[in-house]
Amino acid sequence: MTHSSHGFDQINPPSRLLMGPGPINADPRVLRAMSAALVGQYDPAMTACMNETMALYREVFRTDNEQTFLVDGTSRAGIEAALMSLVEPGDRVLVPVFGRFGHLLCEIAERCGAEVHTIEAQWGQVFTPEQVEAAILAVRPQVLAVVQGDTSTTMCQPLADLGEICRRHDVLLYCDATASLGGNDFELDAWGLDVVTAGLQKCLAGPSGSAPISISPRAVAVIDGRKHIEAGIRTDDDEERGARIASNYFDLAMIMDYWGEKRLNHHTEATTMLYGARECARLLVQEGLPSAVERHRLHGAAMLAGVQGLGLEVFGDVTHKMNNVVAVVIPDGVDGDGARAAMLDDFGIEIGTSFGPLHGKVWRIGTMGYNARKDAVLVTLAALEQVLRAGGAPVTAGGGVGAAQEVYA
Ligand SMILES: Cc1ncc(COP(=O)(O)O)c(C=O)c1O
Fold it and tell me: What is the largest CA-CA distance in the chain?
């Protein structure tokens, strides 16, 4: 067989404004950082970049945790690393489920061999601290695993009281902050969280493919208690402790040694993603975390007012909505997928579909990361008005852009 280019063109994607629940358009500065030259795995420039990235993510997570670094892979790589490394087969894990990503935590914890217990909230609602504490008392779990912002329902679970409850009952608290970090209040140390993971493709304004993680000293002690360094790099001084973590790639005990002073060889760090993740955090820290949250609050409020101004209904308890995404009830008689296709084809704007019980019932519209901007909000609302009208929905002329402008005024 002869080699040929098959006539394929260079990658040249269409211009899109990504206003769904993530991924969103990456900040051009992040993409520029990702085109920087590669260096070797132990080049001082590389290890310095890793250390800077750790320092930046301590600020993003609002923590002093030494163990703050990146897991290579998308956000669920961070979740798997956290749960694989914390949970031993037979451990009890409690998951308050208020959307699709709570189910994902259950699914991953089950694969870790955990005995998984759940409490469930109706989609569109969140839990009170009392409900969570009652479940902890009933289940006596080793780990409470909770999502902060569940993009499937747009809800943001309040976390401020959960750390204290978990410490009182000697439970480790894991949180998936993929969809919420950077756009909603988040205080790792003040809220007493033990392990938190995230991703870049939402409020952090990057592409997916890197999962920032931060681990409290008491969780580090648990994970280090399961350390089995792999053969070939193990020395006679390295004792093997506890139940070995079932995944090599997601073994946080070994990954901590790779990011730490030992620089013990593990995977080959994904240099280009490291550059991107570093730039995402650098931009957020430069802006200031409180300002970034306020920016998401403002543009999220403008989008919410805009869709309501068009006469559309919003799904769920809006007092607990994440700043960065809104679920809009598809009006009767409008073809939800057809309208999304028209947004894409006619305007180059992507809005999101939804999963499970909400599929076909709501669209999800995001205002996050690089797209938490006034022009992105107004253009999306203007396009949505046209698409709804073409679909036969009775919309208030100019009502979307007008209501959003009032929020900005
Ligand atoms: C809350 C939450 N957790 C986890 C994920 C999974 O992330 P990824 O697709 O990057 O693995 C997502 C993605 O939408 C999410 O919103």
Answer: 75
